[in-house]
Amino acid sequence: MSILEGNGQEWVELLFLFFFEGVGKVINIEIPGRGMLLLEYLVLDFNGTIAQDGKLLPGVKEKINSLSQSLETYILTADTFGKCREECLGINAQLKVLDRASGTSEKEDFIVSLGAKTVVTVGNGSNDCMMLAKSALGIGVIGNEGASMKALSQADVVVKDIHDALDLLIKPQRLVATLRE
Fold this sequence. Notes:
Blueprint: H1 8-21, E1 27-31, E2 35-39, E3 41-45, E4 51-52, E5 55-56, H2 60-67, E6 72-77, H3 84-87, E7 94-97, H4 103-114, E8 119-123, H5 129-134, E9 137-141, H6 149-154, E10 157-159, H7 162-170, H8 173-179
Parallel strand pairs: 3-6, 3-8, 6-7, 8-9, 9-10
Antiparallel strand pairs: 1-2, 4-5
């Protein structure tokens, strides 16, 4: 029997496999007045966002590893302190070290290459402003190192630290409450 001769149930199963089997990791969030966010990628800045003075902040690794089960995760950095590779050991994320001279455009290009409409970004610095602006959801983090006004003005949401940012994705109803129109 050919696939065209199958019964209705076989067609439903085939369509399910075709459309959903390859989708992989996704977080869906319906924002009233804004629409559906279909997030596939999490892109995090390193220094000032998930790390302070080149050292990963406590508890961040566990939250990123938890989110990496739902989102393909990347960490972008110019590696100012030269410790990023060591600090990110054991984190389920791909590390991308950037050219220090063109970090802003490199981050933006990276977001675009992933498909910006499926990316959530988290950052605090001036060189994060374009990735925050281009992504489907940009989260600005103030943190202990502060945050640039340029970055904060391009973010959809601003939080006081990285734990609050990651918790927005772990508990997406918080995003609904903040972003609904």
